Amino acid sequence: MLINFGTSIALILSVFFISACGGAAAAPTAYEVLESYDFPVGILPKGVTHYDLDPSTGKFNAYLNGSCSFSLEGSYQLKYKSRISGYIYKDKLTNLSGVTVKVLFLWLNIVEVRRNGENLEFSVGIASAEFPLDNFYVSPQCGCGLNCNNLDDGPKEGNLRTNPFVSSF
């Protein structure tokens, strides 16, 4: 009887331990990682399949199924390569590669993003532009950006507001 009691206790404790631990804990999504560094999810398009992050250095890679492009309010065209990389720190993304923006007739690499209070500042190296944080609460979708339901109805509330690259370094 004592053996059955001990076996029962061991079985109950094992089930409890496995339930409490849930086996291997699910890794946070790339979007959850962004939020943990004080960034909104909308700086990445929908469709990140996986990522890797070295928390000791901040080095990261985020992967999409393929390249991704879209327009925001018709004034900015963005392209994401299938691999986006850089370094992430609280309120700062540096040494970015894999994200470009069309300014006039030129495609420029976005090399840095900084959070400055309730704004995000995007730098292409020689110039930067600042946009309200609330423009990035929703992730854009490849092909149609933030205006995927009604492509011909013009800009929708919540789209990126026009603001030219204004300050130079």
UniProtKB/TrEMBL annotation:
Give the matching Pfam families: DUF538
Look up keyword Signal and say if it applies.
Answer: yes
Q: Which residues form the signal peptide?
A: 1-26
Which keywords does UniProt give here?
A: Signal
Stored PANTHER family: F22D16.19 PROTEIN, T31J12.3 PROTEIN-RELATED
Q: What is the name listed in the Swiss-Prot or TrEMBL entry for this protein?
A: DUF538 domain-containing protein
